[in-house]
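Assemble and predict.
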Amino acid sequence: MSKSAVSVSATEAVACCSPLTAEPLSAASAARIAPLLKALADPVRLRLMSLVASHQDGEACVCDLNDAFDLTQPTISHHLKVLHEVGLLDRAKRGVWVYYRVNDDALGDLASLLGGGVR
Amino acid sequence: MSKSAVSVSATEAVACCSPLTAEPLSAASAARIAPLLKALADPVRLRLMSLVASHQDGEACVCDLNDAFDLTQPTISHHLKVLHEVGLLDRAKRGVWVYYRVNDDALGDLASLLGGGVR
DNA sequence: GACAGACATCGACCTGCGTCAAGATAGACA
DNA sequence: TGTCTATCTTGACGCAGGTCGATGTCTGTC
């Protein structure tokens, strides 16, 4: 699987040479990774990820997230959808409420790509 | 020209903040970090970073980078400028040629933010 | 069955970004 | 000094993306 460009063994990643710096990225790999970064490259979505991740039990209800921003509910819903579509957030509907949870694997892979995460 | 010192220290921008999953990110912190991610959130710039980092001696000339893409030289120059302005790439002009080098601290701090790694 | 609340989707507006062609700048060399 | 080469800057175009108001869908309650 070509995903190896992203999910490189974290133990091999050293401070001096992260996967990104180890060898030239192929155009295909770059095209696959860029959307993940683009999804994170927004202040609102960055805070959403952080809010969800640091929330109790690691998951947060949309109603909680709405209150943290001066934005309308559709806008928050849109940002959550973007994060969900790239795989950074998982969705779970329980009754009337919808809960979001951070996908640690996806986030970890990105960290490995940039700097190796483990130092 | 007097506007050569546009670039900010990417290290300062990130170093202030704890990992994404530890506690909610402030709006100010998110606004500082998002531009860094946005600079990386482009397939061309992702490959440029990778090409520069994995090049001999860790630095690459613009002429080398142009050949790796089906884009015009001004477009490559534009992308390099974006990466330089957020502090992800360092610039050095020697004679006619301009060499770019990856700022490892900036990349490492981004990775720490995403992966929760403590330095 | 009808109503109310939580969340998603749709359509529209406006800003920002990637790209290119053309011109400008700076160092090297005769 | 003048010319050549390598690179950067400017201006313009088209498209993608963030935001909002209005509307739709689903679930639980009376």
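The longest strand of chain A covers residues 89-94.
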